[in-house]
Automatic annotation (TrEMBL):
It comes from the Bacteria. PANTHER family: D-ALLOSE-BINDING PERIPLASMIC PROTEIN-RELATED (PTHR46847), GALACTOFURANOSE-BINDING PROTEIN YTFQ (PTHR46847:SF3). Belongs to the bacterial solute-binding protein 2 family. This is Simple sugar transport system substrate-binding protein. Residues 1-21 form the signal peptide. GO terms for cellular component: cell envelope.
């Protein structure tokens, strides 16, 4: 009797196991069939800098890796082109929209249109000012205020360590600033962080900002504006704060053309951490770069997938960044990814 019972129980367990197994596999295959490819519309600003090129490349690669179809649109530095692109993404019925806002303001109307069409929006890299923050689901970017603060703090320490004296024999170090795109969150906040840190420093009275002007985040414009700074203030300039590496690289050419030594006569700090500035630092032509991380693609794709699955995501995420002085450049350059 016992034997018969154990055979029956055994058979019963076997049937259950087979049943479970087949259930699991049929669940999987039906989920697979139901999964349609996610389509993301992405509006990029343009290709103004080495940083931007790396950002675009990373986003395209990450979309491919994540199996997301990316509709990529290049706005050629114009907000109106970005607005047009977003409207066309809405018309095409994409699953999700992501974009890097060239400037902070002017997005309320078009983002309301996306919300009305029930298409979630992710803001990437730069920030926006909106009347209604429910118009976007998540923001992935970099901390421009901290970058500006770090730039000043590094300069302040460096001038002391090197025992630098103002070139004009006065009692203040004169600073010129090459700002980024006018109206962009990055330019506004890097300026803010830099001046806040300067005012908060016990050495505040040792520094003066002589001039601050946009170089539009490009090498060409950085060079032109630095030329004009040199014409107006020549031997007074001690420090250049370039709000991106490309403008610093342009300025280095202008400084050399004026017969001065970049990195020595004029101490240079910039932001981004692209390979070009590491090379310049190795050559002794620049002094420090504050990293701004363009590798945001993976996080963007992961966030998009979560949003579309209805999972909760963080509203604001900053990516990690460091500070790289010239004496670390040689060892660091081989491992730089952009
Ligand atoms: O620093 C600059 C670029 O938005 C953080 O834009 C980005 C900035 C970056 O063109 O090089």
């Amino acid at each position: 009797m016992k034997k018969v019972l154990s055979i029956v129980v055994g058979l019963l367990l076997l049937t259950m196991a087979i049943g479970c197994g087949s259930n699991t596999s049929s669940d999987k295959s039906s989920a697979g069939k139901g999964d349609k490819q996610i389509v993301m519309g992405f509006s990029q600003i343009g290709a103004e800098s080495e940083w931007r090129t790396a950002h675009t490349k990373d986003i395209k690669q990450a979309a491919q890796d994540a199996g997301i179809k990316l509709i990529f649109s290049d706005a050629q530095q114009k907000q109106e082109n970005q607005i047009k692109a977003i409207r066309s993404f809405i018309a095409q019925g994409v699953d999700i929209i992501a974009f890097t806002p060239i400037v902070e303001t002017g997005w309320d109307t078009v983002l309301k249109e996306a919300k009305d069409a029930k298409i979630p929006v992710i803001i990437v890299d730069r920030d926006v000012k909106l009347n209604d923050d429910s118009l976007y689901v998540a923001k992935i970017g970099t901390d421009s205020v901290t970058e500006g603060q770090n730039a000043f703090k590094w300069i302040d320490e460096y001038m002391k360590k090197q025992n630098k004296k103002p070139r004009d024999g006065g009692d203040k170090f004169n600073i010129v600033v090459l700002e980024g795109t006018v109206g962009s969150s990055v330019a506004v906040r890097r300026s803010q962080g830099f001046t806040e840190a300067m005012k908060a420093s016990p050495d505040a009275s040792k520094y003066e900002i002589l001039a601050s002007q946009t170089g539009e985040f490009t090498r060409q414009k950085g060079q032109e504006v630095m030329e004009s700074f040199l014409k107006s203030y020549g031997d007074k300039i001690d420090i250049l704060f370039a709000q991106n590496d490309d403008m610093a690289l342009g300025a280095i050419q202008a400084i050399e053309a004026a017969g001065l030594k970049p990195g020595k006569d004029i101490t240079i700090i910039s932001i981004d951490g692209v390979k070009g500035i590491f090379q310049a630092m190795i050559e002794g032509k620049s002094n420090c770069t504050v990293e701004c991380n363009p590798l945001q693609g993976k996080l963007l794709m992961e966030t998009a997938k979560k949003i579309l699955k209805g999972e909760k995501v963080e509203k604001n995420v900053f990516v990690k960044e460091g500070v790289f002085p010239a004496d670390t450049a040689k060892d660091t350059l081989p491992s730089r990814k952009y």
